[in-house]
Amino acid sequence: MARIYKKRGNAIKAKIALEALKGTKTVGELCQEYSVAASQIFSWKKQVEEQCETLFEAGRKHDHQEEIDRLHKVIGQLAAERDFLEHVLKR
What we know:
Number of helices: 3
Distance between the termini: 83 Å
Largest sheet: none
Number of strands: 0
Strand content: under 5%
Structural class: mainly alpha
């Protein structure tokens, strides 16, 4: 008989992995509480440990990109206003 696996969302995976990292509960307790295999918890925990550095790097790049996008919008608006006024004053 084939096993049916539950699909877990990213939020619950992160919650379980963080609880495992904190160490307040054992992996066995987390397995029982969330009905998840121990190997899966260790996998999620390892992913969090490996990717935690990139969380902060991505935030900085994202902040700069938002600022760049905002400034491009302002530049476009000013250029359009300048062109409009130039056209009106030539009449």
